[in-house]
Fold:
Amino acid sequence: MSQFGAISHNLQRDVPLAKYTAARLGGPAEWFFRAREAADYDRLNDIVMAAWADDVPVRVLGKGSNVLISDKGVPGLVVVDQVSQIDYQAGEADTWQVQASAGTGLIVLARGCQQRGIAGMSWAVGVPGTVGGAIVNNAGAHGDDMAASQPTVIALEHERGLVTYTPETLEFAYRSSTFKHRDDKRFLVRQAMLTLPAGDPMAIKAQMDEFNAYRVRTQPPGASLGSIFKNPPGDYAGRLIEVSGLKGHTIGGVQVSPVHANFIVNLGTGTASNYYDLIRYVQQAVSHQQGVQLELEIELLGLW
Ligand SMILES: Cc1cc2nc3c(=O)[nH]c(=O)nc-3n(C[C@H](O)[C@H](O)[C@H](O)COP(=O)(O)OP(=O)(O)OC[C@H]3O[C@@H](n4cnc5c(N)ncnc54)[C@H](O)[C@@H]3O)c2cc1C
Structure:
């Protein structure tokens, strides 16, 4: 029997993924495993290593806040990393070493740092992803990003085991890292060690409150995937969509947000196909009216 065959009979089958995504959309995973505590990591290792060895496709989800999953679902194995573990150590010269498991929520991390007087993560207070997803995407906001925390990352990889990446080998760029465009996808970010400066807890809190207030003012509530399109050089995707008259445009149960045109919101009755159709509609309308081809910031997962 194949390695994955020997393990897969203990895995859940055909698990709906909508509740594991921020847009609350998407069909089932063929096989599914969710790691909830550190003790699950050994089993997670065995499962993904067996899948990789047998060429079973594996996709990892953190909070699913940057992925649109097809209604037809995702073939192969989907693993969800919800392991939240943070260790804070005071370092030299007013710095802190903060080690976080990949499944740790960015908001939890930002708040934990603030309470201990650790600066450098305030930008993440309104970003609904995990540390793993933030490393892959080099998430950022308010002019700051993951790269600025100089992460050293440990990842599990096919045929290599645990591999350590330094800030240099992570090749961070705008919303991108060495992991982002790896076609094989045979890696699992496991943890990140961040080097962060000490700061005043009250000043950090004031900054976080300001960032949160800004989000409440400028971004819609509800089920969405954040910014759908990359900003083209020298312009804003949201502006281009707005001047194309698309704010509020609705297909099925999804809508271009009337609050922020680069957000597409699931009104509660939407499907992933509605979402995808609206993305294509917006791309075509903006291309036709403004002569700009908008590129996706989010990732499409599964069968399209
Ligand atoms: C309302 C809203 C606001 C947002 N605002 C921002 C913002 O201000 N700035 C910003 O940068 N982003 C923003 N985002 C997008 C999103 O939160 C970030 O991209 C975040 O980093 C994604 O993390 P995640 O855990 O949800 O990743 P997912 O969406 O689950 O996955 C994203 C990618 O990372 C991979 N991945 C995730 N975890 C692992 C892992 N452990 N190992 C290997 N691969 C992994 C996935 O396979 C996928 O390719 C926003 C999203 C929403 C819904």
User: Anything to note?
Assistant: The chain has a mean pLDDT of 97. Residues 22, 59-67, 81, 102, 127-130, 132-134, 136-137, 139-141, 175, 187-189, 224-226, 299 surround flavin-adenine dinucleotide (CB under 6 Å). The CA atoms of residues 171 and 178 lie 5 Å apart.
